[in-house]
Design a protein that fits this description.
The complex is a heterodimer of chains A (214) and B (266). Chain A is mostly helical and 214 residues long. Helices cover 82% and strands 0% of the residues of chain A. Chain B is of the alpha/beta class and 266 residues long. Chain B has a domain of 181 residues: Rossmann fold, CATH 3.40.50. In chain B, 56% of the residues lie in helices and 12% in strands. Chain B is built from 10 helices and 6 strands, in the order αααβαβαβαβαβαβαα. In chain B, α7 runs parallel beside α8. The chains are: A mainly alpha (214), B alpha/beta (266). At the A-B interface, α2, α4 and α7 of A face α2, α4, α5, β3 and α6 of B.
Chain lengths: 214, 266
């Protein structure tokens, strides 16, 4: 016996999402190649709708965050104090920012005096992480890692101002590494990336790929 | 280029748009040709081996053996930006892992920073559990929203992921999508401990970090092959073949233009 097809489910889960995605995608794509003012207006409207939907996603994110940490507090596991701290911080920042919004003085003060110093300190860890990663690379004795370490050494030495005065060959070697082999490699990668993005977009536009439906 | 200028003058579109069309339209030919041919072909496409995808196929068995989750990050971009293709590559990987996780007791631990990636990730998980016949096993907290990007910086997210990887029982770390310098912040602690890590991105400036920290790196455009290698769908295979053909075409054109310029013809 043939399985029965539920037309309502088919419409809701497959046909309507695919039709909307393909239609919107094609209109926005056509807008890229047209100077028609009417079409440009429709494209601008669709993009604005997209921005509104994305803003609602932030509310969903906040709900997810609250739900996860509230459940962890209820369970009383080892990370509970940190969950309390996260929820308390979120509430305090929300109450401080609420009266004047994101561009208000309270929000700007939090950004400048709390967030940015924390971010800068955290990013400073990159220096040590790059060092340990390079040390690990040097211990792996393959020719790829040898080339990798050599290129990194030439660029590092060539970028240090006090070593540049020793010989003009040092910055010249650095420039050659950056502008010839590295640039050629990057362009090759970018060519592949561009083709990959076109292929992904085409699969979505034609409805072959439907990450938003069954 | 004179040809593009002529095309622009004829159609009323500018040279940038003409260049976009010149790249986009020829790509359609191999794409649709192989899409038409694929169902009639007796032999499936043969793909070169990418060790990272082979390892991904065995990853959930590793999770089941250790009883620990696999951490999955779909990158720091969402599904409404120029880097959507990178996020989708991460979502295809998540779809593959979630399908296998739904049959075990170990759900993947998914983290996101961009709000638009959260519903996409939750939807992939929900559908995987539905497909495998366990819709009640799906939990909203399987995907965690860590923190939104602040002024385009995903450092708060990186801090949250570092904490998860350092303090929660995670058997492997999978990071596939769009990343910036924060990639190293998330990947290096795991690399120092010798954790099993698979990851990749299309951003050339981040690729050295990927190469240095990942057990199995996925470099550049290889991330867009995740659908073909893991999900094995015809549409993904055909787009991969079309990409390869078009790449050869572009390389030949580049070489011919270099020769022509060197000889003074252009």
């Amino acid at each position: 016996m043939q399985p029965r097809i539920n037309l309502g489910v088919l419409l809701r889960r497959q046909l309507v999402p695919v039709a909307v995605a393909m239609g919107v995608g094609l209109v926005v794509l056509l807008g890229q190649f047209s100077t028609n003012e009417g079409l440009s207006g429709i494209v601008a409207l669709l993009i604005a709708w997209g921005a509104i939907v994305a803003a609602f996603a932030l509310l969903l994110g906040l709900a997810n965050l609250l739900l996860f940490h509230t459940r962890r507090i209820v369970k009383r596991d080892a990370q509970t104090p940190f969950s309390i701290l996260i929820l308390a911080t979120a509430l305090i920042v929300f109450l401080l920012v609420l009266p004047a919004g994101g561009s208000g003085s309270a929000a700007q003060w939090i950004l400048r005096s709390v967030y940015q110093p924390l971010e800068a300190s955290f990013l400073a860890l990159l220096v040590f992480f790059i060092g340990t990663a390079m040390y690990r690379a040097l211990r792996v004795r393959t020719w790829e890692m040898a080339l990798f370490a050599l290129a990194a050494f030439v660029v590092l030495v060539g970028s240090a101002p006090f070593l540049q005065v020793l010989s003009p060959l040092i910055p010249a070697a650095r420039d050659w590494v950056v502008n010839v082999p590295a640039l050629a490699g990057v362009r090759g990668i970018l060519l592949g990336v561009a083709l990959g993005i076109i292929a992904t977009g085409l699969r979505l536009l034609t409805g072959i790929d439907r990450p938003y439906s069954e | 280029m004179p040809f593009l200028s002529d095309l622009s003058a004829l159609s009323g579109i500018n040279s940038q748009q003409a260049l976009m069309l010149a790249v986009f339209l020829p790509f359609l030919i191999p794409f649709f040709y192989f899409l038409y041919r694929a169902p009639r072909s007796r032999t499936g496409p043969r793909l070169r081996a990418i060790p990272a995808y082979d390892s991904l196929k065995k990853l959930m068995a590793r999770a089941a053996e250790t009883g620990q989750a696999v951490h999955v990050s779909v990158g720091t971009a969402g599904v409404s930006s120029a880097q959507t293709a990178d996020t989708l590559a991460g979502l295809y990987t998540l779809e593959f892992l979630a399908d296998r996780a739904a049959n075990s007791d170990i759900p993947p631990l998914v983290t996101v920073t961009e709000p638009t990636a959260l519903p996409a990730a939750l939807d992939q998980l929900r559908r995987a559990y539905e497909r495998q016949g366990y819709p009640d096993e799906h939990r909203v907290e399987h995907a965690r929203f860590i923190a939104p990007p602040v002024n385009g910086s995903a450092v708060p997210y990186a801090a949250g992921v570092m904490d998860i990887l350092n303090h929660e029982p995670v058997t492997a770390n999978v990071m596939l999508g769009a990343f910036g310098d924060e990639f190293l912040l998330m990947a290096e602690p795991g690399a120092q401990r010798g954790a099993f890590q698979i990851g990749g991105t299309s951003n050339p400036s981040v690729l050295p970090f990927v190469y240095l920290t990942m057990t199995e790196p996925i470099l550049g455009e290889e991330i867009y092959a995740s659908g073909a290698y893991l999900l094995e769908r015809i549409g993904h295979y055909t787009s991969l073949i079309a990409q390869d053909i078009f790449r050869v075409f572009v390389v030949v054109v580049v070489i011919l233009v270099v020769i022509a310029r060197t000889l003074g013809f252009l």
